[in-house]
Amino acid sequence: VEAPFKSYGKQDVFAITLKQRNQIKVIHATKDHRWFVYRYSGEWLKKKANFGRRAEVRTQDLLSGQILIQTKPRGKENIQPSIVGIQHGLVWGDGTHGGGRITSTLSLFGNKDKELLRFFVEHPRREIRQSVGGVEITNLPYHFKSLVCVSKSSCIIRSSNRSSIERVREVGHILGIETSQITEAVSSGYKPSIMYTTILKAADLTEEFFLLAKHRSRFNNVSNRYHFYWRVVSVKPAGREEVFCCTVPETGCFCLEDFIITGNCFAIPGPKGSWLVYRFAKGTAEHKLWSQDDVGWTWCRYNWQPNLRQAALALGGIEDERGNYVFTTTEDAQKTVETIGSKLLLPEGNKYEGRQTILRRHKDGRLVVELDKYEGDEGFVGDWLELEKKKRWVRIYNINTNSAEEERDYSEFDSLTRSVRTPANTDAGWMIRTSGAWVRSPASNVVRVLRAVAPSCDDSKIMGTAILNQWTLVNMPFHEEHPGGRQWNYGSAQFKYKPADTKEPVHPHWDKILSNIGQDLDHTIKQTEWCKKWNIHDGKDYLTAWIACMFREPFEPLPYLFIYGVQGCGKTILAAATASEIDGYFVNVDAASMMSKWLGEAEKNVSKLFKMAHALNEKEGKPVILFIDEVDSLLGSRNSEIGGEIRTKNQFLSEMDGVNSKGKDVKLYVIGATNKPWS
């Protein structure tokens, strides 16, 4: 999951001191940052902690002795060591290269290393007669001496190279193996040097991680393994500093170093240092000052002047069924008016303590104030009116209850309506979200929607702000909907099914299809050095890599894939199977059925086909894949064409060139198949 770190400005922070055995670490966090804790009073655990029994605690509420919950990747129990990986690791640790060599070598000495020879049975070797004797294995890949590339009782590992130990910790983090902090000490061996050390947590290992039999035996003979966790030592104020936090989409948690799990809110920077703060799960219940948008996200404003409703609810006002805010004392009502940036002036010399006061918004946005009438009240003249039946005083103040609304950036309306433009910076109109889907709409419909959902807001200002902050429509297949920089990856090709999160995916049906179709490539691929270099052994491997590249790097050029053969060889099923992975529409067309003996009918059929595909794309916002079988009927050789066929081909090529859709962002893909490539 891509989760970039963002700055959240300077804030007051606390220093959280944690301890795990003899290791100490300090984390700075804001007072309301969320942590997940597990209570246990002992020094260590012989059984793994049941983190299902956990509580959510804010930084300021953390207690000494509480265990911070950790989470690690699953699947270590299914790891089967790779022979190539073992070779790479041994050469990286004890091998050599240099002196103009294009390979690496590995020397194994004494009886201790003889057991490792079983991993190099296919490599040439020579006997070493010096010293204690041994074996030198040669012609190993040159890059085995380089660090492994990472994408995306205890076991102790030492090295004189700190970056090597850091890489071990990085790989351990990916595998879910906890490692200690790196320590350093001076080694007094053949040549004094600094040695760097990290310790792998035994409870996270399995016997498959040990290559030598005596090491596996020692590991398996330990019946009880202690579990050590990070415990809170102290929480103290640490001043004010810039705060950074990870923004994780669609979840409320992320992991820090050493697998410590922590939660956070999702915040979007706003104008003048304000923030639009979202809770993660949809429909999350929060304080009454929080709101929910039309798709269920709970949000609030931070560091932003509140409106009348927010100020009234925060200061003890109760909202009745008519939208009035009722206060039991006038003092709280006066504080509410001060909070929205004004002042409530009342006649002097009267008692206001304990007097019920009502604030409400006039239809033109001004503030209406009602006070209970007390006997002996003085000064309620001029703009004050007496409601005899209700025994109240009422007055309309020239205080704008929308004062906080006037400068708002209206970013919350991004989930309802958006002004969009093309990558070429030409206006592309308006989009409105209705029933969970985005549809193109004229500006007049946007006005109607805004007046329906936000009658108190100025729709012209909302739309003007949206135009000044337009979304750019982009086409980035198989990427997230919002890549950043107000780019909107709307309607691009997406996977219909979520890819399996496994290193060894199983797809027997796909393998059968690709083996059958790619068998004619087997001989050529086995003779191609490029294929050998990249472990492509046959036609199935080549087609698998071709399709994977199309999905993973859709903008990178690929070799043309031209498939032909007799009926039933698999041309159509390859196109249909590939299209089935994409969340879009697959339209299968027989080109011969589009031809006609009537003048001009074939050209009309071609035009209708593309118009239908364009309309489907614009209406549903999903890509359309046109598969045209027997395409030679439309695109035959020019030497054998007559007048009608020429016009039909020209119409088809015109549609393919996008002449009738210039300037529009149309996701339309065309695949053709033929039994007669020579025609």
TrEMBL record:
The molecular function terms of the Gene Ontology recorded here are: ATP binding; ATP hydrolysis activity
Name of the molecule in the record: ATPase AAA-type core domain-containing protein
Q: Where is the ATPase AAA-type core domain?
A: 562-678
